[in-house]
Write a structure and sequence with these properties.
Belongs to the binding-protein-dependent transport system permease family. CysTW subfamily. It is a multi-pass membrane protein. There is one protein chain. With 271 residues, the protein is mainly alpha-helical. Helix content is 80%, strand content 0%. The protein is built from 15 helices and no strands. Helix 3 crosses helix 15, helix 11 crosses helix 12 and helix 12 runs antiparallel to helix 15.
């Protein structure tokens, strides 16, 4: 069997199938978006991305996605530490639940947030009594982004924590280092590539989130209208060129982030 799979014909066939699959499902759709964004001329492309509503939607999305990424970095790092270093009943269940946002449709996540934090829920009523508003305001969008990107940091940091040699921490303690000093000088540097790459992946994913966000955002231009919902509205308004132009901004930013993630991971392995 191994001899058959190593045959040049099989190797060529597998490579061709992989390249064809990648071309049809990834490259061509991406090229189509870039082409369509410029299909009606450069001037319309510039007008589309400099439109005040579109520009505010992109800036709002970047700001909220960055906030969600920071929250995920803090919470995800702590959860990774607990899952790797602590032993307690229900640990395996908690570890399996980490991937739940990947399994659930994002619209279901948005509906859960709407039901749990909406104006008619007890949390929403309590927040309203304090003069706070969650759903249909930026806090709900951040919560939705945190939910859908929750596993990225955890799954990036966990393997690095598991690979840390306990003897390094023991040696640092033997030399008189406190627990805090051991964490910041021994453990944290080993975790940092996973924290950075997981945070950037969470940020990139949050930029494009639609299903969860559209149910909890108020879609008010300049206040709660995010880029993905803006793109959907432009498509519904039959302005596909304008929608493609804003999509190009998000795509280009995502490409840059993915390149940085790959660089961070490669650098982390070489250290």
């Amino acid at each position: 069997m191994n001899t058959l799979l190593r045959h040049k014909g099989w190797t060529w066939g597998f490579r061709s199938t992989l390249l064809l699959y990648f071309m049809l499902l990834v490259i061509l759709p991406l090229l189509g978006v870039y082409y369509h964004s410029l299909s009606e001329g450069w001037n319309l492309f510039v007008d589309s991305i400099t439109d005040p509503i579109a520009w505010k939607a992109v800036l709002l999305t970047v700001r909220l996605a960055l906030t969600a990424a920071v929250v995920n970095i803090l919470i995800g790092t702590m959860i990774s530490w607990v899952l790797v270093r602590c032993r307690f009943p229900g640990r395996s269940l908690l570890n399996s639940l980490v991937d739940l946002p990947f399994a659930l449709p994002t619209a279901v996540g948005g509906l859960m947030i709407l039901l749990l934090l909406g104006p008619v829920s007890w949390v929403g009523k309590a927040a309203g009594a304090l003069g706070l508003e969650i759903v249909f305001h930026p806090p709900a969008i951040i919560i939705a982004m945190v939910f859908v990107t929750f596993p990225f940091v955890i799954r990036a940091v966990q393997p690095l924590l598991e690979e840390i040699d306990p003897s390094e921490e023991e040696a640092a303690r033997t030399l008189g280092a406190s627990g805090v000093k051991v964490f910041f000088q021994v453990v944290l540097p080993s975790m940092m590539p996973g924290i950075l790459s997981g945070g950037m992946l969470a940020f990139s994913r949050a930029l494009a989130e639609f299903g969860a966000v559209v149910l909890v955002a108020g879609n008010i231009p300049g206040r709660t209208l995010v880029a993905s919902v803006y793109i959907y509205g432009e498509v519904e308004s039959d302005n596909t060129a304008g929608a493609a132009a804003v999509s190009v901004l998000l795509l280009t930013l995502s490409f840059v982030i993915l390149w940085v993630v790959n660089w961070v991971q490669t650098r982390g392995k070489s250290i």
